[in-house]
Amino acid sequence: MTPAPAPMWPARYAVTGRHAETEDTVTLMLRPAGNPIEPPRPGQFTMLYAFGVGEVPVSISGFHRGEVLVQTIRAVGAVTRALCAAAPGDMIGVRGPFGTDWGLNIADGRDVLIVAGGIGLAPLRPVVLAALDQRARYDRVVLLVGARSPGDLIFTRELATWSRRGADLRVTVDHGQPGWDGHVGLVTGLIENAVDDPADTAAFVCGPEIMMRLSADMLVRCGVPATDIRVSLERNMRCGAALCGHCQLGPLLLCRDGPVVSYAEAAPLVTIKEL
Amino acid sequence: MEKDIDAERTVAMAPEMTLPAPRLIGAEGLEDLYQALVAEGYRVIGPAVQDGAIVLRELNSAAELPFGWGVRLEPGGYQLRRRDDRAAFGHSAGPQSWKRFLHPPRERLWSAARTPGGFELSDQAYDGEPPSYAFLGVRPCDLRAIAIQDRVLAQPGSRYAARRARLLIVAVNCTEPGETCFCTSMGTGPGADRGYDLALTEMADQGGHRFLVDVGSRRGAGVLERVPSEPASEAARQRARSAVEAAADRMGRQMQTADLRELMADSHQAARWDDVAARCLTCGNCTMACPTCFCTTIEDTTDLTGDHAERWERWDSCFDLDFSYLHGGGVRKSAKSRYRQWLTHKLGTWHDQFGSSGCVGCGRCIVWCPAGIDLTEEVKALRTERDHQEEP
Q1: Are B88 and B63 contacting, i.e. CB atoms less than 8 angstroms apart?
Q2: Which of A212, A246, A256, A270 is the best mutation test for B, with the most CBs of B within 10 A?
Q3: Are residues A116 and A59 located together in one domain of the fold?
Q4: Closest CA to A55 of A102, A89, A20, A8
Q5: Cα–Cα–Cα angle for A177, A178, A179, rounded to 5 degrees
Q6: Of the four listed, A72, A242, B333, B356, which is most buried by Cβ atoms within 10 Å?
Q7: Is A262 among the domain residues?
Q8: Is residue A57 domain-resident?
Q9: Each residue of A200-231: pLDDT tens digit?
Q10: Please, is B338 exposed, middle or buried when counting C-beta atoms within 10 Å of its C-beta (0-12, 13-18, 19+)?
């Protein structure tokens, strides 16, 4: 009998689906093979364990039918390579969910502006889905998606659906390639045009730290209050339960006080070198 | 909002308000106390001379306590010295702290075995029942250090919490501060007023070698009942209290704590970090010796077949380059950023994260730094640099 999942005790999940997003990025569907973890909120993350290899933090891209975890993983090291290689039927260890959520309620009755860079779209997917599920609750829902190249875009199967369901979708790549007739340039370059009513906009930004800084700074310049800009920060995570000290960023323990924080809180921290 | 550790502990102590008055035991009473602890099922951990230092280890008898030994401390230096009395606790902090028992350097969290359908975690993850320790000889600074680690690690259901709940603490009020001590500045000593089961104050003078015993809990009272003791006269109490009060004025170091948090927050760009980084070896000794440093890392291992896996937790240090590893490298690559992380966390952001300072003024980090870096000096220099910049 599997004991109830304590913070340090992985719950066992079976891979039920696998989709290759790009050359190095895979989305896994995970279904509990024993006691499940608590239902996650959009923006939270789990620690995923590949048997005998190790464990890494991965943001949650979706939670379907009250039990299926959707997690998008980019292969950059031994553990993420093992996770990306998992096939349907394989077992993965899951701890969590950990951390703060996006706090989508700050956008009630206002414009939702989602800015994603690369795999930063993965933790924002639940925000997109939640906003579209209750589309009437918000004014505009604008989704700005940037990637290095067309081949690095993730969730490409869903982008058109989101657009159809009422998202104002704008996609850009840093470097185009033959056959790409879309926008070329940094995602930050799309922001100015996307902001309509800055005082009535809530922004959700995720991507590489430098991209989040430049995006948030641009949003602030456009008049969006820093307190209405949410970013998802990343540091080394080992425990997820505020016990191990690795994820410190100044006063924050990002596994507990983050990963999602307002830019008002993040700005003074991410501008200090090597903090 | 910062919560007050002291206030919480005071509330926790409330049901035990009516405790016995202080008692007096002789030097031989330490063996009786040791035997009483063993009789109640405790493994007794205390100071003992070993390998040229006073270490903390499981004791086989009170006779193993470092009777007649003192220490000489300096930045980067530690030496045993003979005392001219037989005091058992006439020494200040050694290379270790009690955290190695409550928060062991290495611990297995679980093991797992491959199965046809995946893997299964073993029920025998926790390596048996948590031990019941009695700590004999906890200094007030270290008593506070335990309270600070409680705040971080005593999460419900954790092994730390289980060990902590079983722990019995015999504190020893400090009458012999070391050259690197500054508990008075940090408000953690030299006397303990709560958080112990029993508290001894050692007196080795013309009146003889004896101990005043304060009772801090029902459990402590139960242990003391097994030990031959006599009521403490008012004179004996006075003598003990004044010895502790006198210790407050004999601290080898001072830390100016006013606005320390703000100083840390204001000093991120200080030039002093370059100065200290030129001396710091980033060896991490300070973090190992510190009684409150709690950081750990996770190690996932397998046997040669690859069918059995284990997860271990072990102490880690923010001075390690890999501590902040992210996307192919450390966030804190320079030595100065790592020293800054340690000091600003210890004295500043610890308040934000856990509601108190992370420093108790025990001085271990000064003594066990191979480069002799003295955090009280570093704080002084940071303060001077900031104040100088603020002048018009």
Answers
A1: no
A2: A246
A3: no
A4: A8
A5: 110
A6: A72
A7: yes
A8: yes
A9: 999 999 999 999 999 999 999 999 999 999 99
A10: buried
Task: Mutate one of B295, B321, B354 to test the A interface: name it (highest A CB count within 10 A).
Answer: B295
Residue where the block lists tokens 């501060």: B177
Give bridge partners of residue A173 from the DSSP assignment.
A147, A184
Minimum-distance CB partner of B331 among A235, A244, A251 = A235
Distance CA B88, CA A263 (A): 56
Give me the count of residues in chain B.
392
Statement: residue B5 has pLDDT above 50: no
A91 closest CB neighbour out of B118, B313, B334: B118
Domain residue ranges of chain B, discontinuous segments joined by +: 5-248, 260-390
Cα–Cα distances (Å) from A186 to A21, A119, A170, A178, A250, in that order, read 21, 15, 12, 18, 29
Give how far the C-alpha of residue A262 lies from the chain's centroid of Cα atoms, to the nearest Å. 15
Residue A266: CATH number of its domain: 3.40.50.80
Q: Return the percentage of chain A with pLDDT > 70, whole number.
A: 98
* Same domain, residue pair A71 and A195: no
Q: How far is the C-alpha of B322 from the C-alpha of B302, rounded, in Å?
A: 21
Is the ipTM beyond the 0.90 threshold? yes
Nearest to A51 among B297, B309, B333 (CB): B309
Shared domain for A263 and A133, answered yes or no, is: yes
Q: Shortest CA distance to B136 belongs to which of B164, B170, B168, B102?
A: B170
Q: Which tens digit of pLDDT belongs to each residue from B294-310?
A: 999 999 999 999 999 99
**Candidates A91, A241, A246; nearest CB to B155:** A241
A165, A108: one domain: yes
Chain B: closest CA distance from residue A251 (Å): 5
Tell me whether B315 touches chain A (CB under 8 Å).
no
- Are A87 and A62 in a shared domain? yes
- Residue A265 placed within a domain: yes
A19 lies in which domain range?
A: 11-98
* pLDDT confidence of residue B239: 96
Verify whether the Cβ–Cβ distance A274 to B331 is below 8 Å: yes
* Chain B residues within an 8 Å CB radius of A33: 117-118
pLDDT, one tens digit for every residue, chain A (275 residues): 334 347 889 999 999 999 999 999 999 999 999 999 999 999 999 999 999 999 999 999 999 999 999 999 999 999 999 999 999 999 999 999 999 999 999 999 999 999 999 999 999 999 999 999 999 999 999 999 999 999 999 999 999 999 999 999 999 999 999 999 999 999 999 999 999 999 999 999 999 999 999 999 999 999 999 999 999 999 999 999 999 999 999 999 999 999 999 999 999 999 999 99
Mean pLDDT of B360-380: 98
Query: How many cross-chain Cβ pairs, A to B, lie less than 8 Å apart?
Result: 108
pTM: 0.94
- What CATH number corresponds to the domain at position A90? 2.40.30.10
Q: Is the residue at A217 inside a domain?
A: yes
Provide, as residue numbers in chain A, all residues whose Cβ is less than 8 Å from the Cβ of B333.
274
pLDDT value, residue B236: 94
Final residue of a domain: which of A98, A126, A160? A98
Residues A147 and A257 in one domain: yes
Write the residue in B110, B155, B333 that is nearest to A274 by C-beta.
B333
Q: Where does a domain end: A98, A131, A159?
A: A98
What total number of domains does chain A contain? Answer: 2
User: Is A274 in Cβ contact with B295 (below 8 Å)?
Assistant: no
Q: Please tell me which residue of chain B has the smallest CA distance to A56.
A: B298
Q: How far is B142 from chain A (nearest CA, A)?
A: 20
Same domain? A165 vs A255: yes
Residues A262 and A168 occupy one common structural domain = yes
**Which of A33, A51, A245 has its CB closest to that of B112?**
A51
Answer whether residue B13 shows pLDDT above 80.
no
Contact B203, B239 (CB under 8 A): yes
For residue B171, pLDDT over 80 is answered with yes
Test the A interface: residue of B158, B262, B268 with most A CBs within 10 Å? B268
Instruction: State whether A235 and B298 contact (CB < 8 Å).
Output: no
